[in-house]
Amino acid sequence: MTTSQHNPGESGTGGTQGLDDVPILPFARPNLLDLPPQYALLRAARPVALVRTPIGDPAWLVTRYADVKALLADPRLVQSPLDPTTAPRYSASTLLSKESFDRSDDTVGPTDRMRGRRAIAGAFRARRVQALRPHIKEHAHRLLDTMADAVAPVDLHEAFSVPLSYTVICELLGIPATDREFFQHSFDQATDMYDRDNAQRGHRNLVEYMTKLVVLKRNNRGEDLISDFVAATEGDHALLVDEVVGLAIGLLFAGHNPLMSRIDLGTVLLLAHREQLDDLRADPALMPSAIEEILRRAAPRAADELRRYAARDIEVGGACITAGDLVLLSLQAANHDPDVFPEPDRFDIRRQDGDHVAFGYGMTFCMGAMLARLELEVALSALFARFPTLEPAVPVASLAIRFDRLSGGVLSLPVTW
Length: 417
Ligand code: HEM
Description:
Layout: E1 2-3, H1 37-45, E2 48-52, E3 58-62, H2 65-72, E4 77-78, H3 113-121, H4 126-130, H5 133-149, E5 154-155, H6 156-173, H7 180-190, H8 196-219, H9 225-231, H10 241-271, H11 274-282, H12 287-297, E6 306-310, E7 314-316, E8 319-321, E9 326-329, H13 331-334, H14 369-386, E10 391-392, E11 414-416
Parallel strand pairs: 3-9
Antiparallel strand pairs: 1-8, 2-3, 4-6, 5-11, 6-9, 7-8, 10-11
The site of protoporphyrin IX containing FE has 21 residues, from helix 3, helix 10 and helix 14.
């Protein structure tokens, strides 16, 4: 791993850089809404920078919008490490990585990307997603009714964002939403960035649960995605049961975690910009651009980088990435690149600048993007219509992103009205 323009042994975000003294991820944040200043410093001085991952392994951090997009479309970067036994790792959690969480007991092998995407694709076609709108609305209103009956302050995160996002994806997958507490606990363990035993325990519990569910669905198919996956384990090009289990866990996480934290942070962003919130309530036609601005601006994970491995040597941004190196593509840094988004820290629901990369880009672009946009729109419209005087019940400065979990997000969001 070498940098072409830097000498080893020097640290900081400008100047030269060596392996022993480089920035360590995740960077500290000034508050809930704003990004660590290191991203802007690195983007300007060293757009492809050598960093250390939270567990100390070396990696390249990419912060420029153009580089992030180009590398997401670059076939020389792959999702699985070339040699899992020696590959640098991002964190103790293996939930969102393509490496096995325990080579001796590997129940979730790397899935075949295209087979996986094919199996999921039908469920997220435009017409099927739009057909969910009344149903999502109904869930949102039911949760808000319960919230209205409670005595303020109420924790919006637990009362609304978590149950809404879980319920929708659980129904799609055919998982009993009543098991939400088990999932919340297991994902909390499985996304532990520093304690590998805890992360593996959580991951193993999820695998055990899903394996049982898949076996149950074999004899008792329903109108849901896991039943579709189970059907796809038969015949030519069949999915393996382990792949179905991996897909189901991946989808359950992908379908609720980023969404619930955007409902939380979207709420805080709008409350922090009251005039724009009033404009939005007066003119719902602003909602689509407001949702895009929330997606661009909300950065609910301290560790939001998409992880890739170099399959070949790559020269980019003045750095020479060597085959086998870990490459971290920071979506939040890209979404705040002033070359694409002038005054990137300004929240502007009318912004018409470039396309953000909150949903990724290229071959692995988020398959649930349409559903996520719909859920966000329904959730925020219903929330502010029902509680026009909503406000945080604690100073926003006292709220923070969780730094020890890949899932990030806030632990709670007390609100009053
Ligand atoms: C605001 C909410 C969401 C955000 C910000 C988000 C973001 C992302 C990002 C950045 C990726 C790319 C990962 C990569 O390239 O490594 C991704 C992939 C994916 N997302 Fe989402 N997502 C959201 C909601 C959802 C929902 C609701 C679902 C499904 C119900 C979903 C399903 C998926 C799937 C299946 C993939 C994998 C695509 C692939 O690897 O081929 N996402 N998402």
